Amino acid sequence: MPCLRLLKRLLEGGLRVSREEASKYGECFRLLSEGGGVVEFKVGFKVLPEGCLMLLKQAVESGFSLESVFKSVNWRGFERIVAEVFKAKGFRVLEHFRFRFKNVTREIDVLVETPRMLLSIDCKQWVRRNYNVRSACKLQLERSKLLSEYLAKKENIKKTVYPILITFLDSQARILNGCLILPVWKIGELSEDPEVLANVAKLGS
User: What SS3 state is found at 100?
Assistant: First the structure.
């Protein structure tokens, strides 16, 4: 599928595409243009992070299984898309943030800093509903609480940390075991105003 090939190209070669190369993906760029997922320049185009999500969604809606999508698109690339969505909004973002505290080492897939809070994001590549979402949420909450302690004591950062699980399989945002489960298609909405989380019942309480 052209959109899947384009997505793979964007993740491996960068988000800028020359006009000559873009002509090979005519229908895909029409989709991106109509959805506001691409910016046009004199020499070519720059696909926005939201545009990458549009291509992902198009591939799935066209009948491609999530398994085939993940075989074509490296999962690290998907984490990069999530990170780029928040970077595009001007937030400080750290990918694969590793820290050691209380004799244990943990890693956060994507860590987003806003003026008042930190988003501790775990990207899950589940493709079938045979996973233990409760366990995953519990682990992400524990990981995020440890991160909060680490940042307060080692880095003197005392912002509230909100644990988030991003997945393809959930269609609605919900809170489970103190962790926000967020459908990947909704990260654009969250990136517009992450601090709306402060108006939700405090996670982890």
Answer: strand
